[in-house]
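Record pair follows.
FIRST:
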Amino acid sequence: MESLDRQLRYFVRIAETKSLSRAADGLDLTQSAISRQLASLEAYVGNALFVRTGRGVELTDCGRRLLAAAKPAYAAIDEALEDIREREGLSRGTIRVATVHTLSYYFTADVLAQFVGRHEQVNLSLMGRSSPDVVALVESGRADLGFVYDVAVNSADLAATPLFDDEMCLIAPKSHRLPVPVDLNKADIKLVGFPPHYALHKMLRAAVKKPQIVAEAETVDAMLQLVASGVGACVLPSRIPDRVLAEHDLVKTAIASPVLKRRIVAITRTDRPSSPLVQELLQLATAAAH
């Protein structure tokens, strides 16, 4: 029964994302693992639930009927469980926080440290992801609170609380000769960027006329290592601590043009009230941002 419950929840997530890979990322699974779970569920049902398309997957007639029953049922179950937790005033349990990778270097760690200091009995789970993945985790209920760039939030199911504006800078080896401040539309600079679905990648593509992105990395650490190896420079928030860059012998350079700035927001779901603990964590984040 436990296995069937898990498979049905995975099925709902695949249907919501219309992608096995996206669903797997949001559930912290490999694509092969979620594919096996789906195959087992389809064998149990006796019918295919999805058809593969060039862009992902689409529900079959059987899949649509199952989703119509399963999605509201799980939403009601999750809401009831959350309501019970709130009514009982639980001070134990787990709070799941999703954050864009960059924030873990200069914001979320400090906020979470304050929270843990107040609630030593609460288990805190932190997930570093891209902006779209943070949104997906909160939307699906796999995260209670998310910290993300506002441009990635486009859902009536999410409430966004503004925190602060993040201004970008160019990061390069100390030996790299650059004008200060640098104009990214005029300087001939090779860049290491995040993958295309990341908010910072989209920002570069939209603001810089012809960005020379020669390599991509999914984490800040990997990006800084590539920059230190001479592959190119990178664009990251100017709040990245100097001590982190010093480990790679890198320095920041201000960007004169274009203006690269994004707003950080905290996101929660609108269809269910946040627990008192999540509300307190959000208050700590808001206070730390101002």
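SECOND:
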Amino acid sequence: MAAPMPENTGRTEAAERILAAAKHLFARDGYSSVSIRDIAEAAGVSKANVFHHFASKEELYVETLRRCCEAARALIQAFAEDQAREPAEQLRAFVRADLRRALDDPDATRLVLAEAFDASPSQARTLVNQVFGADFRRMTEIFSRGQEDGSWRQDTSPALMASLMLAANTFYTAHREVLRQLPGVDFADDPDQYADHVVDILLDGIQKEA
């Protein structure tokens, strides 16, 4: 993965079609298996048109990844500005919204998770800086706030709690079809129910005893 690109909000309609096609193909087939010709055909443009908007396949890939993260950034920003809720209520709302965001754009979710799975140390640092870092920090801030106001135990790690919560959402997103086939699973098609159960179980473990 290349270095992050600056945001470009002036994309043409053709460029948007190219980005949409690239996201779907990269998510389905992987970076190395997708050619510029494949993307051009899927977008209904010429190869020359692709190169008019993007200097290389790598540049197109990085811009596609950046676009995949926009919804997550917007969600994180909204919760960062919302300090009126109690920590438990804020956590529940955040986990629900984060899970819904991942499910609403499966290509984006699949692409980012694949990038994380195969990342080298340098790529992992870029992913943390550009994708996962803000999400993770927001989660740890919620847990820290609950500890500071006395609601939750002091002997639990906010980083560990955030890791468990994000891992639960990642598992649900990546394995939803498998969950539908498992006996006793009644939440595969109800992400809000799943999110609420996960939060309830976690909070039960960190709730400060009266």
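COMMENT: The chain has a mean pLDDT of 86.
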